[in-house]
Amino acid sequence: MVQAQQKADQQKQLKLWLKAVGQSQDRAAFAKLFEHYVPLLRAYSLAQEPGATLVADDLAQEVMIKIWNKAASYNPSMANTNTWVFTLARNARIDALRRNGRYNTNIDADDLFENMEDEGPDPFQAAQTLMTQETINAGLAKLPKEQADVLHKVYLQGRSHQQASEELRLPLGTIKSRIRLALKKMHLLIGGQ
Amino acid sequence: MAITQHPSGDWLSGYAAGTLPLGQALCVSAHLEFCSQCRQNYSRLSQLGGELMQSLEPAPSPKLSLDELMARIDAQPKKATQDIEAYDLDLSDGSSSAVARDRIKPSGTVIPRSLRKLIPGGYQKLKWSRISPSIRSAELCRDDKGLKVELLRIKPGGASPTHTHLGDELTMILQGSFSDETGVYHTGDFMACDQSHTHTPVASLDRECICLTVTQAPIQLTGFFG
Ligand SMILES: [Zn+2]
Ligand SMILES: [Zn+2]
Q1: B2 touches chain A (CB under 8 A)
Q2: How far is the CA of B103 from the centre of ligand 2 (A)?
Q3: Are B49 and A84 a contacting pair at CB < 8 A?
């Protein structure tokens, strides 16, 4: 419980810093965000490519620059700062893979994800649509290890279902059903999907 | 007609995690533009990503310095702030989800934003090739994994050949509706087929049906063209 409280306080603080960067290009606040997020962004990159420290440095810098440039468009009622930074990191990862890929496409991550967040039919529903950080973390803590492992593979290591199936030596159907079970257990999907 | 067919949690979370091939992600993205329910689910699945990232063991860099980064930021062309202004303009014309929640009315023929780069001049301007008396197709691109991203247009009442699939086949209905052995699919509906499905989609009689399809492998024809 102490830990949950710490995380909530930390999130409050991160929001204030991000707001200060967005509103007045506050460099001291940006330094705090740098301190918090750079090690996590590097860890995110290293989860996909262990040992690739240059790639990790590049991703961390690219995302920090985006944080600076886009801070004014951050909307705290749509996403907490962790979610927002995660989506920036995910998009940077997608665009880096695309640049190095065999096939050329002109579709980038912004085409795929821009404005896709939704807080529900009206602003008052945001609280019901979005979950609290505490609920998500409590849900994660209670997941069976086999389900948590698959989420880790997909979200952090960036593996496709097929790759996860090969690396975990499990049938593709098992990977997919573990994901669905985990999401169901955490009540992340509404509308019976 | 209400949207009844949504991507399942494994598709939606793969989209949120950024692990789907671009073509498949386009299909999910196009569905989200029609479907508020899935946009909300996507918001929560992104939250999950945010908290998972926080759970990683931080990996501080011995090399990255804030001063260097600030120097890079200060050296940026002034475009950065213009981006923000452009974003605001975007809001004011009503194309943002904050303003217009259901940006695409299921009865409309609006091209999803995520596809506009691939369909710059509208559906009519694409190079359509005839694949049967009632079906024409236009390839939009090959994605990063070599998946074929294409549009199909099926004449009212026209049938697609009976087929099964060698890999995943995603279909998003952009206009009209069709039915197959498993049910009726309307504008905005999302459909995922794999090796276990054999089906014969038939467009409804009232309107031409336009679908986005993303295929991993050529479909296997088991019947004849209708
Ligand atoms: Zn949906
Ligand atoms: Zn099919």
Answers
A1: no
A2: 28
A3: no
Tell me if chain B has a CB within 8 Å of the CB of A161. Answer: yes
Alpha-carbon gap: A159 to the closest alpha carbon of chain B (Å): 6
Q: What percent of chain A has pLDDT over 90?
A: 77
* Under 8 Å between Cβ of B143 and A105: yes
> In terms of domains, do A118 and A151 share one?
no
Distance CA B181, CA B172 (A): 17
Higher pLDDT, B188 or A130: B188
What number is the ipTM of this complex?
0.95
| Per-residue confidence (pLDDT) for residue A86, from 0 to 100 | 98
**Domain that includes residue A76, residue range:** 2-122
- Specify the higher pLDDT residue, A69 or B219: A69
Query: Which residue of A42, A53, A86 to mutate against B (max B Cβ within 10 Å)?
Result: A86
User: A19: closest CA among A72, A98, A56, A89?
Assistant: A72
**What is d(CA A15, CA A33) in angstroms, rounded to the nearest whole number?**
10
Confidence band, pLDDT 50/70/90 cuts, at residue B96: very low
CATH-assigned architecture of domain B1-55+66-226: Sandwich (2.60)
